Each structure stands twice: as C-alpha cells, then as structure tokens.
Amino acid sequence: MVHKLTAITLSIYALIAGCLLLFSYADKTIWQQFIYAIIFIVIPIIGTLSSLYGDKGGISLVLLLMASQVIRPLTPFEFFPFYAPFSLAFPFGQIEQGKGYLFDIFAFVM
C-alpha cells in the first residue's frame, strides 16, 4: 500500500512538472529545460517504477532528489526555468531582502 501511494505521488509530481514545462513559456534555453525535465520528470518516473517493482536503486535516486529540495534559496535558481513542480515550503531567514530560504515539507516527508 505504501509503495502504491509513493508511486501515485511521484507520478503526479512528474505530471505537474511535465505540464509546467509543456504549457508554460520559459525564457531559458533548451538545455536548461532539458535538465529540468531530467531532474523533475524522469527521476520521479524512475522512482515510480522502482517503487512498484521494489528496486532500491531508483528509490535512492528519488531520495537524493528530495533531499536536495528540502532547503533551498528563496530566490529562484538561475539555471532552472521553474521551481519544483509541487512544494509545501515555508520561508525562513531574511525574507524581506530576498535572502531567505525555503523549508519544503513535501520534500522532507517524501
């Protein structure tokens, strides 16, 4: 049951990222959009399949992705066209000056 719930959550995560990339205009280059697709679409799909089939390698790849998303700068990364596709983040630090950080509860729970 937990594996199916994880697979469904990661599938929705990848679907939202795909829709962001497909239906939004991004002013970044094709290379930056490709990297965004690899990180936020392909890795969650690998995690979905790994969760369904019980492969630990793909799940550890998703674990690294989510661990990198737990605390991130408030200002968007210059390299990615968008933020993470789904986020329940709370700001902390000096948010008035734009130098704070976001603590993502969703990535922490995943």
Architecture overview:
59% of the residues lie in helices and 10% in strands. The chain has 110 residues and is mostly helical. The protein has one domain (2-109). Helix 1 packs antiparallel against helix 2 and helix 2 crosses helix 3. It is globular.
Calculate the terminal CA-CA distance, rounded to whole Å. Answer: 15 Å
What is the molecular shape? globular
Number of H/I helices: 4
Overall residue-averaged pLDDT value: 84
* Residue share in β-strands: 5-15%
How is the main sheet built?
3 strands, antiparallel
* Rg computed from alpha carbons, rounded to a whole number of angstroms: 14 Å
Report the structural category.
mainly alpha
User: What is the number of E strands?
Assistant: 3
When the domains are counted, the total is 1
Quaternary state of this entry equals single chain
Q: What string, H for helix and E for strand, traces the elements in order?
A: HHHEEEH
Low-confidence region ranges: none
Helix content: 55-70%
Spatial sequence of strands, sheet with the most strands = 1-3-2
Quick summary of this structure?
The chain is mainly alpha-helical and 110 residues long.
